[in-house]
Design goal:
It is an enzyme of class 4 (lyase). The chain is an alpha/beta fold and about 400 residues long. The chain contains 15 helices and ten strands. Helix 4 packs across helix 5, helix 5 runs parallel beside helix 6 and helix 12 crosses helix 13.
Length: about 400
């Protein structure tokens, strides 16, 4: 298998097929500067048109005195947490001079980032190509194409990086490379990032400074933003990252191994990676929790029963970990609040996480994990055993 270094292209400000002097001439041309100003304005205007996402309360017994919230990122215009990331990546690439009129933007994505990037590409009038595993849900592919993007499939998920770089070079386009630039494109000090938004929305709650914020990692950019903001603002909040099966983040973090890899693709779309991505910042994370895929799906189905909301599998991964942390707080008599994320809508995964046939084909039995959750919510005690 190629090493991360072999897969990782350098900053793609210039592509081999386009002479350097041509790019320099484009950037000094008044028409290019006018296009750039308008493109940046369009992306910034999208943020002004978008109200902040909701913070939902997950009902827990009042006598526990622990409050659980879900930051509902599914209400963004493109329906997921990745809308924030895509906006930041486009502004970063535009201001670096990497995106040019008429040249395609190419991205390696398992779906939600590509949906959001296709939206912004259409907004500024450039083509978009998503390089993704062939196993990506049909609904996500439809959404990418609805936004004007094109899907380019690979059979081996580990090849998405190299194939994206190849396509960008071949077309004279820009490889956005979310897995490198996610952590640096977002302003982690504030500017209405997700961390600042969470704290503002908690201001009038009983416990405005959460004991824990639970995130999941695809690029690692969200956990980096959360951890950096917490440290910058001198909060006592701790950040936990929940990692699904067939992802190497947990092993890399616990073993302090930046070369950790997984030989299988994550079944929880949008999170979990086969290698330690450059945007994953271990020092921003206080704790990691490995979550079986069956537990993620049990949790996301519980969410539908409790709140009447379908959500993607990554939401279930984070919710399982958040409920385990709540259980620890209850067991130790601690009071406070916990926040996790509702990352995207479950309607994108009706043929996967909400289909019993898919679960059976994957060999996933959610019954014991469902029982664990139900026991905990009824008794306040987290059961011990294999499904804990």
């Amino acid at each position: 298998m190629p090493t991360p270094e072999q897969n990782r292209p350098g900053p793609p400000a210039r592509t081999p097929e386009v002479p350097a002097h041509t790019l320099d001439a484009d950037r000094s041309d008044p028409s290019y500067r006018a296009w750039l100003k308008e493109a940046v304005r369009q992306v910034q205007a999208d943020a002004n048109r978008s109200a902040d996402t909701h913070l939902l309360r997950f009902p827990l017994p009042a006598h526990w005195d622990v409050h659980l919230y879900l930051k509902d990122e599914s209400t963004h215009p493109t329906g997921s947490l990745k809308h924030r990331l895509a906006r930041s990546l486009f502004l970063y690439a535009l201001c670096n001079g990497w995106i040019r009129p008429g040249a395609p933007v190419v991205e390696a994505s398992s779906g939600s980032t590509a949906v959001s990037e296709a939206y912004f590409a259409r907004l500024i009038g450039v083509p978009f190509i998503a390089v993704m595993p062939r196993s990506t849900s049909r609904e996500k592919c439809r959404l990418i194409e609805f936004q004007g993007g094109r899907c380019h499939f690979v059979d081996d998920p580990r090849t998405v990086y190299a194939e994206s770089a190849r396509l960008a070079a071949e077309t004279g386009g820009h490889y956005m490379d979310q897995f490198t630039y996610a952590e640096r494109a977002t302003d982690w000090r504030g500017n209405n990032n997700i961390a600042e938004s969470i704290y503002q929305q908690l201001r009038e709650e009983r416990y405005p400074e959460p004991a824990w914020i639970v995130a999941t990692a695809g690029t690692g950019g969200t956990s980096a933003t959360l951890g950096r903001y917490v440290h910058y603002m001198r909060h006592d909040t701790r950040v936990c990252v929940a990692d699904p099966d067939f992802s190497c983040f947990y092993e890399g973090w616990t073993r302090h191994d930046p070369e950790a890899v997984s030989d299988r693709a994550s079944r929880i779309e949008g999170i979990g990676r086969p290698r330690m991505e450059p945007s994953f910042v271990p020092g921003a994370v206080d704790r990691m929790m490995k979550v079986p895929d069956a537990a993620s799906i049990a949790a996301v189905r519980l969410l539908e029963r409790v709140l009447g909301r379908k959500a993607g599998g990554s939401t279930g991964t984070g919710l399982w970990s958040a409920l385990r942390i709540v259980a620890e707080m209850v067991a130790h008599g601690e009071r406070g609040s916990v926040v996790t994320l509702l990352c995207d809508p479950g309607e994108r995964y009706l043929d996967k996480y909400y289909a019993d046939e898919w679960l059976a084909a994957q060999g996933l039995d959610i019954t014991p994990y469902t029982a664990t959750l139900e026991t905990f919510l009824a008794s306040g005690t987290w059961p011990s055993g294999p499904a804990s």
